[in-house]
Amino acid sequence: MAHTTHSPLVRVLSVLLALVLGSLANATPKDFQTQLDTAGLGYQVPQTGKSILVNIPSFEVIAFEDGTPVLRSRVIVGAPWHPTPRLETFVSAVRFRPTWRPTPSMIASGEYTDRIRPAGVNNPLGLAAVRLAPGLLIYLHDTNKRTLFAQDYRALSHGCVRVERWDELVAFVLDMDITRVHTLANGQRTFDAPAPSISVTLAYFTRFPDAAGRMVTHPDVYGLNTTSQLLEKDNTSTTTACAEATSVE
Fold first, then answer.
1. What ranges make up the beta strands (E) of 28-136?
2. Buried b (16+ CB within 10 A) or exposed e, 222-249
3. CA nearest neighbour of 206 among 215, 196, 214
4. What is the pTM of this model?
5. Distance in angstroms (rounded) separating the CA atoms of residues 14 and 58
6. How far are the Cα atoms of 55, 92, 104, 200, 232 from residue 203, in angstroms, in the given order?
7. Residue 163 bridge partners (DSSP)
8. Mean pLDDT, rounded, for 51-77
9. What is the pLDDT of residues 99-148, one digit of tens each?
10. How far apart are CA 82 and CA 100, in angstroms?
């Protein structure tokens, strides 16, 4: 009967492979939290349910489910003279095919004329916007300038958070099939879809783990000179806004 002999190298590689697979199988939702804790970053990922974190210096949004990142997307945040505020808030609705009206400060600057932009692919809010706490004019939204996501430096907006993978974020928020998201976003009607009150944190960490778990240092885009600022003292108001509220058509 034939007899197969494995070399010592093959046996070693087999053992290493078994260890790696075992580590993956035993991974827990707390692994990302462990990375944050090890780096001394003061953000506690909710270990049950859904949550969303925007890290301003890394120009990124992360969606979590039961403590595990399930979506990471590039974002565009507020420019230093129109900074995205640091705050804790929550999702209130998703507006499909939003209209857009510039804020008084945008009009006063001469950058925009005072008129409502109709819904559609040319709208500055794109095809959908995740609306946050009522009265807060900061959204997580699509954009009509998607080519800007290719830039490394993305502090370019008036305060809102433009999301490259906006359709996947909407699908996550509404627990909706992405095909349905596309159908509604490319439809004829502007409307608000009710959404669960998912917690949203807009934070400021100049050191933050990337998708591979490596700790990366990012530019201090707002000159805060800190590695672990989470919130401003006042979470309830902000002078930054990317649009005025407009009625649902």
1. 50-55, 60-65, 68-78, 87-90, 93-96, 128-131
2. beeeebbbbeeeeeeebebbbbeeeeee
3. 215
4. 0.84
5. 38
6. 5, 19, 26, 10, 9
7. 75
8. 98
9. 999 988 889 988 899 999 999 999 999 999 999 999 999 999 999 999 99
10. 18
